[in-house]
Amino acid sequence: AQEAAQQTLPSQGTVLITISDLDKAIFSKLRKQYPLQAKIISVSGETAALNIGNHSGVSRGMVFNLLEENNLPAATGTVVSVEPEKSYLALADNSAPVEQGMRLREYVEE
Q: Are 66 and 100 in contact (CB under 8 A)?
């Protein structure tokens, strides 16, 4: 059985909120404020290995921006494979050079 919390709002009745929905909302808000950050540990062709994996919250399909020195996005990539401490990013067709040591930040829609 899923736990639920009830809150009575003045003149608006009772609202039923599941704990799961509340967790998702909190997690989403935190992710927008504090997106995941990583570094490229190796590059092979069109794939880059990152220094974080599913233990850090990375999941397949996540999008990361590769950052220039001024923290502006230079390129993007999508996570195609995840291990506990490492993940692999398929690099988008970008003109920006991608190399070991580059920093990345999770792309989070505003």
A: no
CA gap 97, 81 in Å, rounded: 22
Residue carrying the six token digits 């998702």: 24
Contact 67, 30 (CB under 8 A): no
Looking at the predicted structure, is the pLDDT value of residue 23 above 80? Answer: no
- N-terminal to C-terminal alpha carbon distance within the chain: 34
Instruction: Give the pLDDT of residue 100.
Output: 95
CB-based contact 107:68 (threshold 8 Å): no
Among the listed residues 56, 54, 62, 40, the one whose alpha carbon sits nearest the alpha carbon of residue 84: 54
Q: What is the mean pLDDT of the chain?
A: 84
The rounded distance, in Å, linking the Cα atoms of 20 and 87 is 27
Task: Please give the C-alpha separations between residue 41 and each of 22, 29, 83, in angstroms, as whole numbers.
Answer: 35, 29, 14
Q: pTM of this prediction?
A: 0.74
